[in-house]
Task: structure prediction
Amino acid sequence: MAELISKLKTMQPGPQPITVEGWVRTKRDSKSVCFIEVNDGSCLKGLQVVADKASIDNNLLNNISTGCSVVCEGTLVASQGGDQAVELAAAKITIVGECPSDYPLQKKRHTLEYLRDIAHLRARTNTIGAVERVRSKMAFAVHSFFQNNGFYYVNTPIFTASDCEGAGQMFQVTTMDLNNVPKTEDGKIDYSKDFFGKKTSLTVSGQLEGETYATALKNIYTFGPTFRAEDSNTKRHLAEFWMVEPEMSFCTLEGDMKVAEDFLKYIFKYVLENCEEDMDFFSKFVEPGVKDTLIHVVESPFAHLTYTEAVKELEKSADKFDFKPYWGCDLQTEHERFLTEEVCKRPVIVTDYPKEIKSFYMKLNEDGKTVRAMDVLAPRLGEIIGGSEREYRLDVLKARMAELGLREQDYWWYLELRKFGSVPHSGFGLGFERAVQYVTGMQNIRDVIPYPRASKQCEF
Ligand code: 4AD
Ligand code: MG
Result:
Protein backbone atom coordinates (compact mmCIF):
# COMPACT_ATOMS: atom_id res chain seq x y z
CA MET A 1 0.00 0.00 0.00
CA ALA A 2 1.08 3.53 -0.69
CA GLU A 3 2.16 5.73 2.18
CA LEU A 4 0.37 8.99 2.86
CA ILE A 5 2.42 12.00 1.92
CA SER A 6 1.89 13.44 5.40
CA LYS A 7 3.83 10.45 6.72
CA LEU A 8 6.47 10.37 3.96
CA LYS A 9 7.47 13.95 4.69
CA THR A 10 8.53 12.91 8.18
CA MET A 11 10.63 9.96 6.96
CA GLN A 12 14.36 9.85 6.37
CA PRO A 13 15.85 9.20 2.92
CA GLY A 14 16.62 5.51 2.39
CA PRO A 15 16.83 2.69 -0.09
CA GLN A 16 13.48 1.01 0.65
CA PRO A 17 10.88 1.15 -2.17
CA ILE A 18 8.14 3.77 -1.67
CA THR A 19 4.82 4.19 -3.46
CA VAL A 20 2.90 7.47 -3.61
CA GLU A 21 -0.63 7.93 -4.95
CA GLY A 22 -2.20 11.29 -5.64
CA TRP A 23 -3.11 14.07 -8.04
CA VAL A 24 -0.66 16.20 -9.94
CA ARG A 25 -0.68 19.82 -8.92
CA THR A 26 2.10 21.08 -11.15
CA LYS A 27 4.74 19.82 -13.51
CA ARG A 28 7.96 21.62 -14.31
CA ASP A 29 10.59 20.54 -16.84
CA SER A 30 14.28 21.08 -16.95
CA LYS A 31 16.54 19.68 -19.61
CA SER A 32 17.16 16.33 -18.02
CA VAL A 33 14.51 15.95 -15.32
CA CYS A 34 10.85 16.56 -14.78
CA PHE A 35 9.57 17.81 -11.39
CA ILE A 36 6.05 16.73 -10.56
CA GLU A 37 4.29 17.95 -7.46
CA VAL A 38 1.94 15.25 -6.26
CA ASN A 39 -0.65 15.95 -3.61
CA ASP A 40 -2.77 13.27 -1.96
CA GLY A 41 -4.77 15.57 0.32
CA SER A 42 -3.29 14.12 3.50
CA CYS A 43 -1.53 17.43 4.13
CA LEU A 44 -1.15 20.85 2.60
CA LYS A 45 2.10 20.54 0.78
CA GLY A 46 2.59 17.71 -1.66
CA LEU A 47 5.63 15.62 -2.41
CA GLN A 48 8.03 16.51 -5.16
CA VAL A 49 8.52 13.59 -7.52
CA VAL A 50 11.62 13.79 -9.68
CA ALA A 51 11.59 11.87 -12.95
CA ASP A 52 14.84 11.42 -14.82
CA LYS A 53 14.08 11.84 -18.52
CA ALA A 54 16.75 9.31 -19.41
CA SER A 55 14.98 6.53 -17.51
CA ILE A 56 11.25 7.37 -17.60
CA ASP A 57 9.28 7.20 -20.84
CA ASN A 58 9.11 10.75 -22.24
CA ASN A 59 5.69 10.20 -23.85
CA LEU A 60 4.31 9.33 -20.46
CA LEU A 61 5.89 12.40 -18.93
CA ASN A 62 4.37 14.56 -21.66
CA ASN A 63 0.93 13.19 -20.86
CA ILE A 64 1.16 14.13 -17.20
CA SER A 65 -0.86 17.27 -16.66
CA THR A 66 -2.30 19.25 -13.77
CA GLY A 67 -5.11 17.27 -12.15
CA CYS A 68 -4.30 13.81 -13.42
CA SER A 69 -4.03 10.97 -10.93
CA VAL A 70 -0.79 9.06 -10.70
CA VAL A 71 0.98 6.28 -8.85
CA CYS A 72 4.71 6.90 -8.44
CA GLU A 73 7.21 4.33 -7.24
CA GLY A 74 10.78 5.03 -6.24
CA THR A 75 12.92 5.89 -3.26
CA LEU A 76 13.06 8.82 -0.89
CA VAL A 77 16.13 10.99 -1.36
CA ALA A 78 17.28 14.17 0.30
CA SER A 79 15.96 17.07 -1.73
CA GLN A 80 18.31 19.43 -3.57
CA GLY A 81 15.79 22.26 -3.49
CA GLY A 82 15.25 24.33 -0.37
CA ASP A 83 11.51 23.79 -0.09
CA GLN A 84 11.40 20.27 1.24
CA ALA A 85 13.56 17.80 3.15
CA VAL A 86 12.84 14.76 1.00
CA GLU A 87 11.60 14.04 -2.49
CA LEU A 88 10.81 10.89 -4.44
CA ALA A 89 13.31 9.78 -7.05
CA ALA A 90 10.90 8.04 -9.42
CA ALA A 91 11.69 4.60 -10.83
CA LYS A 92 8.23 4.16 -12.32
CA ILE A 93 5.22 6.40 -12.87
CA THR A 94 1.73 5.24 -13.88
CA ILE A 95 -1.01 7.59 -15.00
CA VAL A 96 -4.24 6.29 -13.48
CA GLY A 97 -6.65 8.93 -14.77
CA GLU A 98 -5.75 11.56 -17.34
CA CYS A 99 -6.91 15.11 -16.94
CA PRO A 100 -7.74 17.10 -20.06
CA SER A 101 -6.86 20.76 -20.37
CA ASP A 102 -10.38 21.98 -19.61
CA TYR A 103 -9.81 20.96 -15.95
CA PRO A 104 -10.99 24.07 -14.11
CA LEU A 105 -8.25 24.06 -11.47
CA GLN A 106 -5.29 25.06 -13.57
CA LYS A 107 -2.41 26.60 -11.71
CA LYS A 108 -3.72 30.09 -11.11
CA ARG A 109 -5.49 31.74 -8.24
CA HIS A 110 -9.22 31.21 -8.24
CA THR A 111 -11.68 33.25 -6.25
CA LEU A 112 -13.60 31.50 -3.51
CA GLU A 113 -16.82 32.59 -5.26
CA TYR A 114 -15.76 30.76 -8.40
CA LEU A 115 -14.75 27.68 -6.40
CA ARG A 116 -18.25 27.49 -4.87
CA ASP A 117 -19.57 26.81 -8.37
CA ILE A 118 -17.27 23.82 -8.65
CA ALA A 119 -17.76 22.53 -5.12
CA HIS A 120 -17.21 18.96 -6.35
CA LEU A 121 -13.60 19.83 -7.21
CA ARG A 122 -12.72 22.61 -4.80
CA ALA A 123 -11.38 20.33 -2.04
CA ARG A 124 -8.39 19.83 -4.35
CA THR A 125 -7.30 23.42 -3.75
CA ASN A 126 -4.96 24.38 -0.92
CA THR A 127 -7.52 26.54 0.87
CA ILE A 128 -10.52 24.24 0.85
CA GLY A 129 -8.37 21.17 1.48
CA ALA A 130 -6.94 22.88 4.57
CA VAL A 131 -10.40 23.91 5.76
CA GLU A 132 -11.66 20.35 5.52
CA ARG A 133 -8.69 18.88 7.35
CA VAL A 134 -9.13 21.39 10.17
CA ARG A 135 -12.89 20.81 10.22
CA SER A 136 -12.34 17.08 10.61
CA LYS A 137 -9.89 17.56 13.47
CA MET A 138 -12.29 19.97 15.15
CA ALA A 139 -15.12 17.43 14.95
CA PHE A 140 -12.86 14.90 16.63
CA ALA A 141 -11.99 17.46 19.31
CA VAL A 142 -15.69 18.08 19.96
CA HIS A 143 -16.20 14.42 20.73
CA SER A 144 -13.02 14.03 22.74
CA PHE A 145 -13.76 17.07 24.92
CA PHE A 146 -17.19 15.77 25.90
CA GLN A 147 -16.25 12.11 26.09
CA ASN A 148 -13.32 12.98 28.38
CA ASN A 149 -15.60 14.99 30.63
CA GLY A 150 -18.35 12.44 31.25
CA PHE A 151 -20.88 13.55 28.61
CA TYR A 152 -22.85 11.02 26.57
CA TYR A 153 -23.43 11.54 22.85
CA VAL A 154 -27.15 11.54 22.03
CA ASN A 155 -28.59 11.50 18.52
CA THR A 156 -31.65 13.71 18.51
CA PRO A 157 -34.19 13.45 15.67
CA ILE A 158 -34.04 15.38 12.41
CA PHE A 159 -37.79 15.17 11.76
CA THR A 160 -39.71 16.97 14.46
CA ALA A 161 -43.14 18.32 15.28
CA SER A 162 -41.90 21.02 17.68
CA ASP A 163 -40.29 24.35 16.93
CA CYS A 164 -37.47 24.67 19.45
CA GLU A 165 -36.55 28.29 18.84
CA GLY A 166 -40.04 29.53 17.96
CA ALA A 167 -38.51 31.75 15.31
CA GLY A 168 -40.66 30.42 12.48
CA GLN A 169 -37.69 29.36 10.41
CA MET A 170 -38.61 25.71 9.96
CA PHE A 171 -38.52 23.77 6.72
CA GLN A 172 -41.75 21.87 6.45
CA VAL A 173 -41.60 18.21 5.47
CA THR A 174 -44.40 16.50 3.61
CA THR A 175 -45.16 13.63 1.27
CA MET A 176 -48.48 15.15 0.26
CA ASP A 177 -49.09 15.92 -3.40
CA LEU A 178 -48.63 19.68 -3.50
CA ASN A 179 -50.87 19.91 -6.57
CA ASN A 180 -53.67 18.20 -4.74
CA VAL A 181 -53.34 18.86 -1.03
CA PRO A 182 -55.94 17.05 1.11
CA LYS A 183 -58.25 19.49 2.85
CA THR A 184 -60.54 19.19 5.86
CA GLU A 185 -64.21 20.13 5.67
CA ASP A 186 -63.49 23.68 6.75
CA GLY A 187 -60.90 24.10 3.99
CA LYS A 188 -57.70 23.74 6.05
CA ILE A 189 -54.82 21.46 5.10
CA ASP A 190 -55.57 17.97 6.43
CA TYR A 191 -52.27 16.96 8.01
CA SER A 192 -53.80 13.74 9.29
CA LYS A 193 -53.36 12.52 5.70
CA ASP A 194 -49.67 13.43 5.67
CA PHE A 195 -46.89 10.90 6.28
CA PHE A 196 -46.59 11.49 10.02
CA GLY A 197 -50.26 12.33 10.49
CA LYS A 198 -49.36 15.80 11.74
CA LYS A 199 -47.49 18.86 10.57
CA THR A 200 -43.75 18.16 10.69
CA SER A 201 -40.50 19.92 9.89
CA LEU A 202 -36.73 19.55 9.90
CA THR A 203 -35.28 20.36 13.28
CA VAL A 204 -33.79 23.81 14.04
CA SER A 205 -32.09 22.45 17.18
CA GLY A 206 -31.84 19.19 19.08
CA GLN A 207 -32.12 20.97 22.42
CA LEU A 208 -35.60 20.02 23.58
CA GLU A 209 -35.00 16.32 23.00
CA GLY A 210 -31.48 16.77 24.38
CA GLU A 211 -33.00 18.04 27.62
CA THR A 212 -34.99 14.83 27.98
CA TYR A 213 -31.78 12.82 27.92
CA ALA A 214 -29.87 15.21 30.18
CA THR A 215 -32.55 14.65 32.80
CA ALA A 216 -31.70 10.97 32.64
CA LEU A 217 -27.98 10.70 31.82
CA LYS A 218 -27.03 13.97 33.54
CA ASN A 219 -24.60 15.35 30.96
CA ILE A 220 -25.18 14.83 27.26
CA TYR A 221 -24.28 16.44 23.95
CA THR A 222 -25.64 16.31 20.45
CA PHE A 223 -23.69 16.99 17.28
CA GLY A 224 -25.63 16.95 14.08
CA PRO A 225 -27.18 18.86 11.22
CA THR A 226 -29.85 21.47 11.87
CA PHE A 227 -31.94 23.39 9.38
CA ARG A 228 -33.17 26.95 9.26
CA ALA A 229 -35.05 28.70 6.51
CA GLU A 230 -32.94 31.82 6.93
CA ASP A 231 -33.59 34.15 4.10
CA SER A 232 -30.78 36.42 5.13
CA ASN A 233 -27.98 36.22 2.63
CA THR A 234 -25.00 36.73 4.94
CA LYS A 235 -21.49 35.40 5.40
CA ARG A 236 -22.47 33.61 8.61
CA HIS A 237 -25.82 31.97 7.91
CA LEU A 238 -26.58 28.67 6.25
CA ALA A 239 -29.86 26.86 5.72
CA GLU A 240 -28.17 23.60 6.78
CA PHE A 241 -25.51 23.78 9.45
CA TRP A 242 -24.06 21.56 12.15
CA MET A 243 -24.64 22.31 15.77
CA VAL A 244 -23.01 21.00 18.95
CA GLU A 245 -25.42 21.12 21.88
CA PRO A 246 -24.38 20.03 25.36
CA GLU A 247 -27.01 19.90 28.10
CA MET A 248 -26.20 19.51 31.81
CA SER A 249 -28.51 18.68 34.69
CA PHE A 250 -28.03 20.22 38.14
CA CYS A 251 -26.29 23.07 36.37
CA THR A 252 -26.92 26.81 36.41
CA LEU A 253 -25.78 29.47 33.95
CA GLU A 254 -22.43 29.84 35.74
CA GLY A 255 -21.62 26.18 35.07
CA ASP A 256 -22.87 26.52 31.51
CA MET A 257 -20.55 29.44 30.80
CA LYS A 258 -17.60 27.59 32.30
CA VAL A 259 -18.20 24.56 30.07
CA ALA A 260 -18.59 26.82 27.01
CA GLU A 261 -15.29 28.57 27.66
CA ASP A 262 -13.39 25.38 28.49
CA PHE A 263 -14.87 23.68 25.43
CA LEU A 264 -13.92 26.42 22.96
CA LYS A 265 -10.42 26.67 24.36
CA TYR A 266 -9.99 22.92 24.17
CA ILE A 267 -10.95 22.86 20.49
CA PHE A 268 -8.71 25.81 19.64
CA LYS A 269 -5.78 24.25 21.47
CA TYR A 270 -6.38 20.92 19.77
CA VAL A 271 -6.24 22.57 16.35
CA LEU A 272 -3.10 24.52 17.24
CA GLU A 273 -1.41 21.30 18.31
CA ASN A 274 -2.65 19.06 15.51
CA CYS A 275 -3.00 21.23 12.41
CA GLU A 276 0.21 23.19 12.43
CA GLU A 277 0.89 23.27 8.70
CA ASP A 278 -2.69 24.24 7.82
CA MET A 279 -2.84 26.88 10.57
CA ASP A 280 0.38 28.45 9.31
CA PHE A 281 -1.22 28.58 5.88
CA PHE A 282 -4.36 30.33 7.20
CA SER A 283 -2.26 32.73 9.21
CA LYS A 284 -0.21 33.65 6.19
CA PHE A 285 -2.71 33.69 3.35
CA VAL A 286 -6.25 33.84 4.72
CA GLU A 287 -6.41 35.88 7.93
CA PRO A 288 -3.06 37.37 8.90
CA GLY A 289 -2.19 36.45 12.48
CA VAL A 290 -5.14 34.14 13.08
CA LYS A 291 -2.85 31.61 14.71
CA ASP A 292 -1.47 34.09 17.24
CA THR A 293 -4.99 35.26 17.99
CA LEU A 294 -6.02 31.73 18.82
CA ILE A 295 -3.00 31.23 21.05
CA HIS A 296 -3.92 34.43 22.87
CA VAL A 297 -7.57 33.38 23.24
CA VAL A 298 -6.60 30.03 24.71
CA GLU A 299 -4.46 31.74 27.30
CA SER A 300 -6.75 34.52 28.50
CA PRO A 301 -10.15 34.45 30.24
CA PHE A 302 -13.24 35.47 28.28
CA ALA A 303 -14.81 38.82 29.13
CA HIS A 304 -18.28 39.04 30.72
CA LEU A 305 -21.00 41.67 30.26
CA THR A 306 -24.69 41.69 31.02
CA TYR A 307 -26.94 42.69 28.15
CA THR A 308 -27.75 45.90 30.02
CA GLU A 309 -24.06 46.77 30.39
CA ALA A 310 -23.49 45.87 26.75
CA VAL A 311 -26.24 48.21 25.57
CA LYS A 312 -24.76 51.03 27.68
CA GLU A 313 -21.40 50.50 25.96
CA LEU A 314 -23.07 50.49 22.55
CA GLU A 315 -25.07 53.63 23.27
CA LYS A 316 -21.84 55.48 23.98
CA SER A 317 -20.82 54.84 20.37
CA ALA A 318 -24.26 54.97 18.81
CA ASP A 319 -23.10 57.02 15.84
CA LYS A 320 -20.92 54.12 14.69
CA PHE A 321 -23.88 51.86 13.90
CA ASP A 322 -26.39 51.57 11.07
CA PHE A 323 -28.86 50.15 13.58
CA LYS A 324 -29.11 52.41 16.65
CA PRO A 325 -28.86 50.34 19.83
CA TYR A 326 -31.41 50.69 22.64
CA TRP A 327 -32.38 48.56 25.65
CA GLY A 328 -34.66 45.86 24.32
CA CYS A 329 -33.22 45.63 20.81
CA ASP A 330 -31.84 42.39 19.47
CA LEU A 331 -28.09 42.80 19.12
CA GLN A 332 -27.07 43.08 15.48
CA THR A 333 -23.86 41.62 14.12
CA GLU A 334 -22.32 45.11 14.00
CA HIS A 335 -23.09 45.51 17.74
CA GLU A 336 -21.75 42.08 18.62
CA ARG A 337 -18.56 42.70 16.71
CA PHE A 338 -18.06 46.09 18.33
CA LEU A 339 -18.42 44.59 21.81
CA THR A 340 -15.89 41.88 21.20
CA GLU A 341 -13.47 43.71 18.87
CA GLU A 342 -13.51 47.22 20.34
CA VAL A 343 -14.85 47.07 23.89
CA CYS A 344 -13.42 43.78 25.19
CA LYS A 345 -10.81 42.90 22.53
CA ARG A 346 -11.37 39.17 23.13
CA PRO A 347 -14.32 36.76 23.20
CA VAL A 348 -17.08 38.04 25.46
CA ILE A 349 -20.03 36.32 27.09
CA VAL A 350 -23.15 38.49 27.20
CA THR A 351 -25.82 37.40 29.69
CA ASP A 352 -29.32 38.25 30.88
CA TYR A 353 -31.06 39.38 27.71
CA PRO A 354 -34.61 40.78 27.62
CA LYS A 355 -37.06 37.87 27.52
CA GLU A 356 -38.80 39.30 24.43
CA ILE A 357 -35.80 38.64 22.19
CA LYS A 358 -35.04 35.15 23.49
CA SER A 359 -36.71 31.73 23.37
CA PHE A 360 -39.60 30.55 25.54
CA TYR A 361 -37.60 27.95 27.47
CA MET A 362 -35.10 30.29 29.14
CA LYS A 363 -35.19 30.79 32.90
CA LEU A 364 -36.86 34.02 33.93
CA ASN A 365 -34.80 36.27 36.22
CA GLU A 366 -36.26 37.79 39.36
CA ASP A 367 -36.69 41.16 37.62
CA GLY A 368 -39.37 39.50 35.45
CA LYS A 369 -37.83 41.23 32.41
CA THR A 370 -34.66 39.36 31.57
CA VAL A 371 -33.74 35.70 31.15
CA ARG A 372 -30.70 33.65 32.07
CA ALA A 373 -29.38 33.56 28.54
CA MET A 374 -25.78 33.76 27.43
CA ASP A 375 -24.25 34.33 24.02
CA VAL A 376 -20.56 33.93 23.34
CA LEU A 377 -19.42 36.59 20.89
CA ALA A 378 -16.19 36.27 18.97
CA PRO A 379 -14.19 38.86 17.03
CA ARG A 380 -14.91 38.95 13.26
CA LEU A 381 -18.09 36.88 13.63
CA GLY A 382 -20.24 37.97 16.53
CA GLU A 383 -22.31 35.19 18.07
CA ILE A 384 -20.82 31.72 17.89
CA ILE A 385 -22.59 30.19 20.88
CA GLY A 386 -26.11 30.72 22.16
CA GLY A 387 -27.20 29.12 25.41
CA SER A 388 -29.15 29.48 28.63
CA GLU A 389 -30.27 28.08 31.92
CA ARG A 390 -33.62 26.45 31.24
CA GLU A 391 -36.87 27.33 32.98
CA TYR A 392 -37.38 24.32 35.22
CA ARG A 393 -40.36 25.68 37.22
CA LEU A 394 -43.49 24.21 35.66
CA ASP A 395 -45.81 27.10 36.54
CA VAL A 396 -43.41 29.78 35.28
CA LEU A 397 -42.79 27.89 32.04
CA LYS A 398 -46.49 27.41 31.41
CA ALA A 399 -47.17 31.10 32.02
CA ARG A 400 -44.42 32.08 29.59
CA MET A 401 -45.75 29.74 26.92
CA ALA A 402 -49.23 31.16 27.36
CA GLU A 403 -47.83 34.69 26.91
CA LEU A 404 -46.26 33.62 23.65
CA GLY A 405 -49.29 31.73 22.43
CA LEU A 406 -47.59 28.33 22.49
CA ARG A 407 -50.01 25.44 23.00
CA GLU A 408 -49.28 23.18 25.97
CA GLN A 409 -50.47 20.11 24.09
CA ASP A 410 -47.69 20.61 21.52
CA TYR A 411 -45.05 20.49 24.27
CA TRP A 412 -46.71 18.04 26.67
CA TRP A 413 -43.64 15.81 26.92
CA TYR A 414 -41.33 18.79 27.44
CA LEU A 415 -43.56 20.03 30.27
CA GLU A 416 -43.50 16.60 31.90
CA LEU A 417 -39.76 17.02 32.49
CA ARG A 418 -40.76 19.85 34.86
CA LYS A 419 -43.42 17.71 36.50
CA PHE A 420 -41.39 14.57 37.13
CA GLY A 421 -38.21 15.26 39.06
CA SER A 422 -37.50 18.71 37.67
CA VAL A 423 -34.01 20.06 38.16
CA PRO A 424 -32.05 23.19 37.21
CA HIS A 425 -30.33 22.49 33.93
CA SER A 426 -28.48 24.43 31.29
CA GLY A 427 -26.94 24.06 27.88
CA PHE A 428 -25.81 25.84 24.77
CA GLY A 429 -25.43 25.45 21.05
CA LEU A 430 -22.22 26.06 19.14
CA GLY A 431 -22.62 26.71 15.44
CA PHE A 432 -19.93 24.35 14.20
CA GLU A 433 -19.31 26.22 10.94
CA ARG A 434 -18.92 29.49 12.81
CA ALA A 435 -16.30 27.83 14.98
CA VAL A 436 -14.50 26.59 11.85
CA GLN A 437 -14.69 30.12 10.43
CA TYR A 438 -13.25 31.54 13.60
CA VAL A 439 -10.35 29.10 13.71
CA THR A 440 -9.42 29.32 10.04
CA GLY A 441 -10.20 32.99 9.47
CA MET A 442 -12.37 32.11 6.47
CA GLN A 443 -14.67 35.02 5.68
CA ASN A 444 -17.67 33.22 4.27
CA ILE A 445 -19.45 30.38 6.00
CA ARG A 446 -20.17 28.81 2.60
CA ASP A 447 -16.51 27.92 2.30
CA VAL A 448 -16.24 25.94 5.54
CA ILE A 449 -18.88 23.29 4.78
CA PRO A 450 -18.43 20.96 1.81
CA TYR A 451 -21.78 21.66 0.15
CA PRO A 452 -23.34 24.89 1.39
CA ARG A 453 -27.11 25.12 1.41
CA ALA A 454 -28.56 28.60 1.46
CA SER A 455 -31.44 30.46 -0.08
CA LYS A 456 -31.44 29.66 -3.85
CA GLN A 457 -28.36 27.48 -3.45
CA CYS A 458 -28.73 23.71 -3.51
CA GLU A 459 -26.50 22.49 -6.35
CA PHE A 460 -24.76 19.11 -5.97
O1 4AD B 1 -28.59 30.74 19.25
P1 4AD B 1 -29.23 29.55 18.63
O2 4AD B 1 -30.45 29.76 17.80
O3 4AD B 1 -29.52 28.57 19.85
C1 4AD B 1 -30.18 27.39 19.78
O4 4AD B 1 -30.56 26.84 18.78
C2 4AD B 1 -30.31 26.74 21.12
N1 4AD B 1 -31.36 25.71 21.03
C3 4AD B 1 -28.98 26.16 21.54
C4 4AD B 1 -29.00 25.50 22.88
O5 4AD B 1 -29.12 26.20 23.88
N2 4AD B 1 -28.92 24.19 22.93
O6 4AD B 1 -28.17 28.78 17.75
C5 4AD B 1 -26.96 28.32 18.32
C6 4AD B 1 -25.79 28.66 17.43
C7 4AD B 1 -25.61 30.16 17.18
O7 4AD B 1 -24.90 30.75 18.22
C8 4AD B 1 -24.82 30.15 15.88
O8 4AD B 1 -23.44 29.92 16.14
C9 4AD B 1 -25.36 28.94 15.16
O9 4AD B 1 -25.98 28.11 16.13
N3 4AD B 1 -26.34 29.29 14.13
C10 4AD B 1 -26.10 29.24 12.81
N4 4AD B 1 -25.01 28.89 12.12
C11 4AD B 1 -25.09 28.93 10.78
N5 4AD B 1 -26.19 29.27 10.09
C12 4AD B 1 -27.32 29.63 10.74
N6 4AD B 1 -28.40 29.94 10.04
C13 4AD B 1 -27.30 29.63 12.16
N7 4AD B 1 -28.21 29.90 13.12
C14 4AD B 1 -27.61 29.69 14.30
MG1 MG C 1 -28.75 32.79 19.21
